[in-house]
Amino acid sequence: MTIRESGEMYLETIYILSQKSANVRAIDIGAYMGYSKPSVSRALGLLKRECYVETDGQGFIKLTKTGKDKAKHIYERHTLLSQLLMNIGVDEETATADACRIEHYLSDKTFDALKKHIKKNKSNT
Which helix (H) or strand (E) holds 76? Predict the structure, then answer.
């Protein structure tokens, strides 16, 4: 299953919100992302169809195992890239915004190399 950048953004948002509260609603996602209810509903429908999310009887949104794995991967990219950019002198706001754009286009091969390089440099200090 290939997921687009916008879908990845929704998965990451659901993951972040689920770390703060077990009960994530569409309205929470919309407020966090600054999107309208119809936009969120459409995106959630697509994510449900692709088996990344499910809703319970009360309308709370949960990541499936596949969705959670994908969301964790995206979040890891975001946090590592943000930290890397801040480490080279980029201010936090810019680093976070740039990391958000980069995380969706960086290949797994390059990301794994970056991660390995960072771990290697940490162990050498």
Answer: helix 65-87
Radius of gyration, alpha carbons of the chain: 16
pLDDT tens-digit profile of 94-108? 999 999 899 888 999
**CATH fold for the domain made of 5-67:** Arc Repressor Mutant, subunit A (1.10.10)
Which pTM does this prediction carry?
0.87
CA–CA distances in Å: residue 5 to residues 15, 69, 74, 91: 15, 16, 10, 24
Question: Cα separation of 24 and 38, whole Å?
Answer: 17
Domain coordinates in residue numbering, the chain = 5-67, 70-119
pLDDT of 38-52, one tens digit each?
Answer: 999 999 999 999 999
Q: What is the CATH number of domain 70-119?
A: 1.10.60.10
Per CATH, 5-67 and 70-119 having the same topology is answered no
